[in-house]
User: Fold this.
Amino acid sequence: MIAGKIGAGGIRTVYKARHLLLNRDVVLKLLNSDSAVAFVRFQREAKLLSKLNHPNIAKIFDFGISSNNTAYLALEYIEGKTISQKLQQDGPFELEFAVSVITQLVDTLSHAHSIGIIHRDLKPSNVIIREATNEAVLLDFGIAKLANIGRVYRESRRTVGLVELPISWKVPCKFGRSIRA
Assistant:
């Protein structure tokens, strides 16, 4: 049962819903495209998520095609706000909280990378802070890929590591304080 719309992207609409058989709230992603390429990407997201088992990654509960031929993905619903929402609402983070979030994300990405999954879309709107525990949870593996581990390692030696952060995450003052080395 759909409770309300959370958001929409180019080819997906995301809802908060109630999974009646599991008796829990879920995030329901619906594919809004007849494109075979879009379906393959959507299916890849489901397959990659099913390989991940980490407390800072939303769990997958179901994937399939509805009776009206709409591909869907049911994920763990996390009560909280994205980093983008929290920054907009509360302003810059305290240093201790920012370090905690970054540490959790590094651990999360290390887990994904250890099994060859590269997220490729790390940004403040794809990380939600769990309201009850202040845990950072990584969302949206829509453009994630299964990597060639040898190639990723070789490329990582030319950059700072396996993770190349968006420019907005590289600026320390984004979290409210200037950090000098």
Notes: The radius of gyration is 17 Å. The chain is about 30% helix and 25% strand. The domain at 80-175 is CATH 1.10.510.10 (Transferase(Phosphotransferase); domain 1). The first strand starts at residue 2 and ends at 8.
